Structures are given as structure tokens and as C-alpha cells.
Amino acid sequence: MPRKEYRLLAQDIRFFLLGGSDAARAAPVEGRDVYPLDWSFQLDRPSDYFEPFDAAGVPLRDLPGAIERQYLPSRIAAYALANWNRWAEDNSTEASERFLASCNWFAAQEEGAFRHDFQLVGMPPGWLSCIAQGEGISVLVRGLALTGEERMANAARKAADWLGRSVAEGGLLAHLPDGGAFLEEYPGTQYRHVLNGCLYALVGLDDLVAAGLDPSGTAGALRDDVIASIERNLPSWEIGDWTTYDFRSSDASMARANPNTLTYQTVHWILLDYLAVRLDRPLLAAAAGRWKAAGESFTQRAKALGGKLVYRLGHGYGV
Asked: Fewest 10 Å CB contacts: which of 17, 22, 37, 244?
């Protein structure tokens, strides 16, 4: 495991014991479409999150194992959106330039497909992920608002098309055991129905609709179908009021499930609450409230830490 991953693992354990996380809700800024997650602190620690950069200022990523240095779409999006929120707060020219460098990377990807050019958990190079597609849409919609360039709108619509295609067709739309629609972060792998990735994708679809880039209503209908599926199946991502990384069967105990780190727990409640408020979904709002309260409870965190350590002893360091 690279040294950076050891540091992040130690940080996760500290968060479980003491509280705090690597995720926070962004404060609203009047007249600016702030992204719901605040990653601004990561901009002050680039060596942990974003370095190195290419010549255009786009983040690259050194990955574990014999994988060449890569463009990792979700990291590029996080960098873009962190800079967007910073620009929204203080009109920083530097932040807007950094945002646009990463936004241009998304706009330049062929057919709006934000691919990963390395093999992972059985997926061949070139795989797609709903988290990257959703975050990329959120970046491009804001790029359109900043520049007015139609190429941003075209790329955002193309990116959304992949979310509406089935996994069998190379897209990211799958179904839960009850037949409900779901968007996959790691299509076709052991990580089935990963909730955080799907929530990022739903935020992206909602951004597209809000920007008036869904004249057919297809993206809005997909968003609503997936949200309804999540509402029906919320217990499958919960053990008590703690969330799990991926979908679990109803009889899976904490020992066999993959409980989230506190950072993922926080991401879950922030994004769920954001969607609940925007779309008036009280069931989602109630779940977000439970998950937030669990993250603030030492007893709940300690139980989750025990489950996480058991999981990682059996599966290795991952999520």
C-alpha cells in the first residue's frame, strides 16, 4: 500500500474515534450555484489530494500497484468543484482558472464518456463509473454558467446519456433485486449498488435538469426513478443508523457488511439531504437526519469502526 493510503487509513481511524471527517456541507452563497460538498480544505493540502498536475493544471493520480500515472475523473471533478466553490465565495481569479482547466478536460472527452484507462476489480481499461459521469455533469453545467460555451452543454448531455444506458450496453443503469433502477459506480463487479456513487450521479442529473438541459425530460425521469428505488430500499444500505458502502442482503450482520468510514457516512447524509430538500422527499430527509446523528455519536462510531476493521481484515484496504 502506498504511503499516502496508510496515512488516509490512519486518518479514518482517528475520525471514527474522535469525530470529524474529510467531508463537509458547503455553505450557500447567494447568486452562486454552490456544489453541496465542501472540499475547499483539500485545496490547501494538494499533496494529499490532487498532486501531481499536468502542464494544463489538471490533477493526475499515482495509483497502487503497477499502474501508470492516471487521469482519475472523480479526482479531477473534486478539484474543479472545490475551486468552483472557492470562486463562488471570493471571486478568486486563480480558482476560476483552475476550475476551467479541469472543466475543459471533461468537455474534451470523446462522447461525454469519462473513462478510466486502467484495469480494476475485473473491469478492463476504459470502464465508466456513475460517480465520474455525475460529477462531470456537475462540473460542465457550472462551466456553461461561467462561460456560456455550448460545448459545455453538449458534453453534459452526452455524459448523462451514459447514465441512461444499461450496463449490458456499456452504460451505468442497472436494477436492484426488486427491479428498481440504480446507477452503478463499479458496474459488473463485487461492489454492487454502491450508494455514494449513485448519489453523486443523481446530483449531476439534477444539475442538468435545473440548468434547462433536459428538454425531453429523460434525465429528470431517470433521476426520479432512481430516487424512488433508493427510498424503497433504504434499509439495504443501513445497519441501524449507520450506512454501508454497498447494497447488502437483509440478513447481513455488521461483521459481514462493509460499514462506511465516517467520511462516507457524512457524504451520504449531505447528498441525501441536498436531494431531499431540492426535490421535496421527506423520506430521504429523515434518513439523512438519522445518518447525521449516528456520525455524531461516539457509540455508533465505535461500533462502525469495529465492523470496518473486521471487513478490512477479510478484504484488505479499499473502501
From this structure: 17
DSSP for 23-48, written as a single string = --BPPPBTTB---SB--HHHHT-HHH
With respect to residue 318, please indicate whether it lies within any of the assigned structural domains.
yes
Question: In sequence order, which residues have a C-beta less than 8 Å from that of residue 90 and are 6 or more positions away?
Answer: none
The reply to whether the predicted model has a pTM over 0.85 is: yes
Q: Per the domain annotation, does 287 fall within a domain?
A: yes
Cα distances (angstroms) measured from residue 277 to each of 223, 272, 284: 15, 9, 9
Closest CA to 219 of 297, 138, 315, 313: 138
Number of structural domains, the chain? 1
d(CA 216, CA 183): 20
User: What's the domain range around 314?
Assistant: 244-319
Q: Which residue in 89, 85, 162, 86 sits closest to 131, CA to CA? A: 162
Q: Domain for residue 210, yes or no?
A: no
* Distance set, CA 227 to CA 202, 203, 272 (Å): 8, 11, 10
Burial class (CB in 10 A: 0-12, 13-18, 19+), 192: middle
Read off the pLDDT of residues 205-230 as tens digits, 9 standing for 90 and up. 999 999 999 999 999 999 999 999 99
pLDDT tens-digit readout, 119-167 = 988 899 999 999 999 999 999 999 999 999 999 999 999 999 999 999 9
Query: Residue 76 belongs to what H/E stretch?
Result: helix 73-90
- Domain contains 126: no
Taking CA atoms, 14 is separated from 17, 18, 298, 305, in Å, by 5, 6, 12, 10
How far lies 45's CA from each of 51, 64, 80, 142, 226, in Å? 9, 20, 15, 24, 35
* Closest to 271 (Cα-Cα) out of 85, 35, 33, 47: 35
Percent of the chain at pLDDT exceeding 90? 76
Which letter does DSSP use for residue 166 in this model? B
Cell of 3: 504511503
Q: In 82-231, where do the E strands start and end? A: 173-175, 181-183
